[in-house]
Amino acid sequence: MERPAGVSARRSPSLPDYNVSTSTLAFDQHFTTTPKGILLLAEIVCGMLVWILVGGTDYFHMSALCWVMFVAVLFWILTVCLFIIYLTGLHIRMPQIPWTTLSLCLNCSATVLYLVTATVDALSVNQAIRGRHNYNCWAASAFFAFLSTVCYAGSSYLSYHVWKTTEEEQ
Question: Which InterPro entries does the entry link to (predicted)?
């Protein structure tokens, strides 16, 4: 069977014309090299180390360490979601959401709660026997919790400057 050489594609006049986009999300390769991208990656890695180190022990016997796990997992999930949103350019496709304000609120609350969490984690190290598995894991998680606090404080600083410049432009 032979096909006709020129097949014309015409729209039927009875079908409505919907504005349907078939494009996919963009991937911003350079985002991970920006200060914001580097800090988000550092927050993800340090936060993951906090909850892995605490989660690998018998933390559930101490309510203070349950708080550490809650904060670490919560902000890890939120940070991963925010990283994916910025990496894929979804924040540009949804301009109705105030991303700068959202990022500022997330980073400031993470800084404060991680500071409390890191302090609680460091004080909980005294509950473990020196040289044992729990002691080493809790001490390392306290270190990474303080490091996460510094990363979130840096992100808060960057978010504040972006927020301040967008407020001045309006």
Answer: MAL, Marvel, MARVEL-CKLF_proteins
Per-residue pLDDT tens digits for 48-96:
999 999 999 888 888 899 999 999 999 999 999 999 999 998 988 898 9
DSSP labels for 57-82? S-GGG-HHHHHHHHHHHHHHHHHHHH
Number of Cβ within a 10 Å radius of residue 114: 28
Indicate the SS3 state at residue 16. Answer: coil
Q: Residue 131 and residue 134: Cα distance in Å, rounded?
A: 8
Residue 84, C-beta contacts closer than 8 angstroms, at least 6 positions apart: 90
Distance, CA of 163 to CA of 114 (rounded, Å): 22
d(C-alpha 17, C-alpha 20), whole Å: 9
* Domain boundaries along the sequence of the chain: 32-169
**How many Å is the Cα radius of gyration of the chain?**
24
- Give CA–CA dist 48/76, Å, rounded: 7
In whole angstroms, what is the distance from residue 91 CA to residue 95 CA?
Answer: 7
Q: How far is CA 7 from the centre of its chain?
A: 50
